Each structure stands twice: as structure tokens, then as C-alpha cells.
Model the fold of this input.
Amino acid sequence: MRGMITTGAVAAAIAAAMILAALARGPRGRGVTDMDGKKPNREGAACGSCGSSNASGDEKLTPEQRRVMRCGGTEAPFSGEHWDRKDPGLYRCAACGRELFASSAKYDSGSGWPSFIEPVERGSISEKIDTGLGMTRTEIVCAGCGAHLGHVFDDGPTPTGRRYCVNSVSLDFEHEEDSPVSEEKNDAAPRAATTERAMFAAGCFWGVEAAFRKVEGVTETAVGYSGGTKPDPTYEEVCTNTTGHAEVVLVAYDPGKVSFRELLDVFWKIHDPTQVNRQGPDVGRQYRSAMFYLDDTQRREAEASRNALAGSGDLDKPIATEITETGPFYRAEEYHQRYFEKHGDQGCAIH
Ligand SMILES: [Zn+2]
Done:
């Protein structure tokens, strides 16, 4: 599995995220690569060698749970049920029911997977050295049934400094029903600032990235390709206008400083959303205007924002912007990242 491979606290806190869960197997199978350019998870889809398991509790597991828990797979980040869960309760092994993590140990690592600083007790999980994919990591498994949970890293916050990075599907959440005290405490102690993400296509990604980097509250950006069909495309392939991908910018931002709605305002201003499959001299589907939403809230806000602009009378042509669900994000080659900072604004027309 390749999911949890951030190498440092910065990556975990800011970008981490978004690894391609190869080719969207389940209904939740949205795949996105890491802003850090981690390669997509290609082995994710098929179990192949592991076959079925007779471990207790397995009969209730879904195929996706078997893939992750019995075959060491990785779910797509930001896709699981628990990565953003904040309510008080207990996380149990989805196969055998063993108590694994308490919500009080959970924090927002920005990775898109549920992250904890410690297990509920020593001995509730076991650690194994995982040398797959050419790197050495520490795999964590349920001490009760051996189910694969995820990995543990040494880049977590204090006091433990550890980050237990776990697949949502490996966990069952047990809500702490009668705990007004805990809920109160939860409200009284708001969680640390979170990082949210948004993905836009508005023509050549060099200029779009430069524009978003100037927005206060934007903490990280990456340019790449999304919305097409070919896995792991190169710039040259995207430029042939046959892969279906758009040049996109993935934006990480602090919602306490800038809202998604404000990012949409920036998006509308920095390009001409009435142009179809082009921006100025850049012609082709890869330069289309598009907003790739990550969840339903973003979809609704994007549609409302588009409708408001359409009804404003500011545009003399219809808006061509496509608002579609996010698919895999493939980070572009390094020389495209922050291009204008490296090369100055030299225009974009390269075909
Ligand atoms: Zn278990």
C-alpha cells in the first residue's frame, strides 16, 4: 500500500493527502495524489493473492474492508467515514470489535485519513515493519485479529509525537451517547485550525497557481492534471488534448482565514469563465474552466456562486465552467510547480 507515506510533519500537516486510490473501485473511490507528488496507489484495486480469510468477524466485512484489512490496501484519502469525524466516542476494529482508539487521541493531520496520537491502550494494536514499495514503514495491525489498520509515523503532535494513520474502513465508530460533558468539552475546546482543499481549472496552471498563492489564507498549492482518463499523464500527453485532463491547481487553505466562497470569487476573477475549452491563446480541453468539488458542500457553494455570477449581468455570454466531482489528481512535473516564481511571468502558450 502506498497511502500513508508522508515523510515529515510538514507534509502531514499541510499537504499529505490525496493519493490516488487507483482507479476508483468503490462508490467512494475518489483518488487523488499527494500535493507532495507521491505516486498513486496502483496496487489498491485487486486483492489477488490474499484470497478469502476465515478470521472471526470477516463475514460482515465489505469487499473494500477485506481489501484494506486483510490485504493491506489503502482507501482513498478524504473518502472514508471517519477522517473528519470529531464527535466523542470510541473506534473499534471493524472486524473483531477490539477497542483501538479514543476520539480524544484523534487529531486533524491533514492527510485525509483518521489520525491518532496513541492507541486506547498499549497492546491494543501491534506494529510490524513494512518494507513494501521500496521504503521502510511501520505497519499497524489490530492485536485482536491481525487486521491491517494503516501505518504509524514519528511526525505526530505532542505529547506522543506519533501519528497513527488509519483507514476509516478498518474502524467502527461507537458514539459516546450519554456524554454531555464530553460534548461540552468538545465545544469549549475547538480543534486546532484545519486545512481544507479546493481544486480549480482556469487555463494554464502556471498563472492560476500564482494567483491563488497570493490569497491570504492559502497555505499550499500544487499544479497537476485532473478530470481525464489516462492514469499518471505527462505534461506532453495532456498537451495533446486527448487525455481529457484539465490543468488544475490544488489549493490548501485555512478556512479560518479564507472561505471557499472567497476562493471561488478569486477563481471567477482570474479567468474568463465564458470561454469554452480555452483561455486566450491556450486552446484545448486541458485549458477548460472547471471547478472540481471535493464534497457536496463545495458543489452547492460552487453552483450558487456560478448562478450568482450568471445572474449578475456582468458577463455577456453564458458561463462555460464545468462543476464536477473531483477525480484523481496527478501532480505535474516539478518544473511546473510555482513556475512563475522560478521563471517570471513569461506567458503560457506551450503546446
Ligand atoms: Zn481486529
Q: What stands out?
A: The chain has two domains: 9-188, 196-343. The helical segments are 9-15, 63-69, 180-188, 205-213, 235-239, 260-269, 296-311, 339-343.
